[in-house]
Amino acid sequence: MTTSEQQAPSSKLSNTLIAAGVIATMGGIGIFWSVSAGINPVTDDATVITVDGNTCAPFALELPAGKTTFQIINASDRPLEWEILDGVMVVAERENIAPGFSASLTEVLKPGSYEITCGLLSSPRGSLEVLPTAASEAARTAPPVAEFVGPLAERKVQLMRAGSKFAKSTKALHAALVTGDLDGAKTAWLSAAQDWARLGPVSLRAADLTNRIAPHPEMLVDGETDLGFIGLTRIEYALFAQGSAAGLAPLADALVEDASALQARIKALKAAPADMAADAAKQASILAEGQIAAGLSRHAGADAALLGAALDGLKRSMAAELPLIAGADAALGQAIEAAFGAAEQIVTATPYDPVASATAFGALADALSRVNRALSLEI
């Protein structure tokens, strides 16, 4: 056997292995987008929305109040998110939908006029008109539930403390950046980012401030070079990816102002009994279906720390309501406690596992989504 004959099988084997590697890599990418985008077949009763990055089709919607399933199709060439907004409050959201993929979203809609986002933050917004039904009118005119007065007050105090803590941590970050202390700024950034993560549920009620405090670069026309790329995510990019604290003082000034504005929003917030569990369920779902897979910390490598802080915020948001849940549905109360425990165990495990974490937060979101029905608060 000649030397060339001996090498031929090896060459063929190498080509085979390379091809297998490419297939495995593409499969891995497919798995990532399957997890983050929530690929689902279009169901007969779904309202289909097609987004091409600049507009939505249909651009104007009219639907009855109650539970509605949306199927969002990404017809653009970049990942996108789709939101229903009530002023500055995020009513429902689906993130990280990959190009050519679709994602489903089910939401209980209340009567009113809403906006829908269509791809990039700079894209024109569509409209959604939700018409009242007999069931929604009955829910609207139902007498207030006295049992929720205490939990709502306790939740308000907890949120005000969390907002104050975030404001203080942004000022500490500002002080480190003004002096050019790179190591000190990195430490202060992590503290501020964790405090922001704990405010996850309330951030849904301040979409404009959220897009300034922690904008996703992929939702901006020019990504990380876009003028709208500011706040914590921009500062993280400079500190950890570029290794510099220079020139960040103006960004820190704006961040401190936005944190102060968020404090004022929290102080003026008037939540309804159904909002506690609904906001927590939405936030857990957003984390499970997009943010964990995309990465909560793109450059600092602090995903586990930020996800742990987000979980802590969710636990605090539900603490006052858990006794009511246990009284109405003991099995559901136990399921929520177990879901929180399982999520905490996975998030704190070493090494950090984003896939397992997303699964745990999905289970938590599912449990929390059943609360309002158990408490007779859902339409």
Architecture overview:
By secondary structure, the protein is α+β, with helices and mostly antiparallel strands. It has two domains: 47-134, Immunoglobulin-like (Sandwich); 146-374, A middle domain of Talin 1 (Up-down Bundle). The protein contains 14 helices and nine strands. It has a five-stranded mixed sheet. Strand 1 and strand 2 form a beta hairpin. The model is unreliable at 1-40 (pLDDT under 50).
CATH class of the largest domain: Mainly Alpha
Order of helices and strands: HEEEEEEEEEHHHHHHHHHHHHH
- What sort of overall outline do the alpha carbons produce when their principal axes are compared? globular
Number of helices: 14
User: What is the CA-CA span between the terminal residues?
Assistant: 79 Å
Largest sheet: 5 strands, mixed
In the CATH classification, which architecture of the largest domain applies? Answer: Up-down Bundle
Layout of helices and strands, plus pairs?
Blueprint: H1 3-37, E1 47-51, E2 56-57, E3 60-64, E4 66-74, E5 80-86, E6 89-97, E7 102-109, E8 112-116, E9 126-131, H2 134-140, H3 149-179, H4 182-198, H5 200-203, H6 207-213, H7 231-241, H8 249-268, H9 273-294, H10 303-319, H11 322-328, H12 330-347, H13 354-368, H14 371-374
Parallel strand pairs: 1-4, 3-9
Antiparallel strand pairs: 1-2, 4-7, 5-6, 5-8, 8-9
Helix pairs in contact: 1-9, 3-4, 3-8, 3-10, 4-7, 4-10, 7-8, 9-10, 9-13, 10-12, 11-12, 12-13
Domain EfeO-type cupredoxin-like: 42-128
Keywords: Membrane, Signal, Transmembrane, Transmembrane helix
Protein name: Iron uptake system component EfeO/high-affinity iron transporter
